[in-house]
Amino acid sequence: MGCASQCAKYFLCFFNFVFFIAGGAALAVGVWLFADRNSFADLIGKLDQSDILNKTDADVIRIISYILILAGALTFLVSFLGYCGAMFESRCLLCIYGVLILVVLILECIVVGLAFGLKGDAEQSTRNFLKSTIKYYANNIDKTETITVTWDGIMTQLHCCGVENYLDFRENTNWTSDKIVPEACCMKENTVLKDPSCPISPTSNNSYYKEGCYNAIMRTIEENAAIVIGVAAGLAFAEILVIILALHLACCYWRPQHVLTSWCCC
């Protein structure tokens, strides 16, 4: 085996080892969340001084755990095949690995194509979804507590208020407070309200009551589009590279010398 094939072998080993560890970590976190949500929430609370997991609805936590388990298990399995195939020079494992990565790449291209093709519909659906959730804000029903926590996080981080503006809260039948806007819409200094009267008397100087969260979300996406595209392009390039390396090594190097395969040329 030449120097080029050795480099390809160790590159595949390193690439898949990284994703093997990442997939295993995601799988472990998913299982931990599913089995014992409270201990995981306590650990996260000690690390970032927040209580968001304890406030999040149990059904949402369960869905997150399912996603982590599924994504982690698939990543763990595929990267395990790639690592073992490269390390032990197994032609069969590398062929299976290459085909699986190719399938993943094709699915990613389909998702990207649908995202661009349905961009207008997606934007309108996003607006409608935000409108449908904000009407449950500040409801005391346990099942909607997650919505309140999520909206508080969005408005605090993006400096916005409501979907279009603060008037969205007037359409909320569950809004029983005398406040015009929630505290999450107000400007803060060191986590303290800049103006204590803001929730009752919001202005442009003490709140973001005229700034809608839909526009803020769209603006944030546009500002970070270059990063997202760059990461996606880098990932796609890496996937194409490992597909080529895996299939090339499997076809051209790691096979019995007396066996001729018509579907592979060197």
TrEMBL record:
InterPro entries recorded: Tetraspanin/Peripherin, Tetraspanin_animals, Tetraspanin_CS, Tetraspanin_EC2_sf
Keywords: Membrane, Transmembrane, Transmembrane helix
Sequence intervals crossing the membrane: 12-35, 63-83, 95-118, 225-247
Localization (cell): Membrane
Pfam families: Tetraspanin
UniProt topology in membrane: Multi-pass membrane protein
Stored PROSITE patterns: TM4_1
Major site of localization recorded for this protein: membrane
PANTHER family reported in the protein's UniProt record: TETRASPANIN
Entry similarity comment: Belongs to the tetraspanin (TM4SF) family.
Annotated protein name in UniProt: Tetraspanin
Taxonomic classification: Eukaryota, Metazoa, Ecdysozoa, Arthropoda, Hexapoda
Gene name tied to this protein: LOC409511
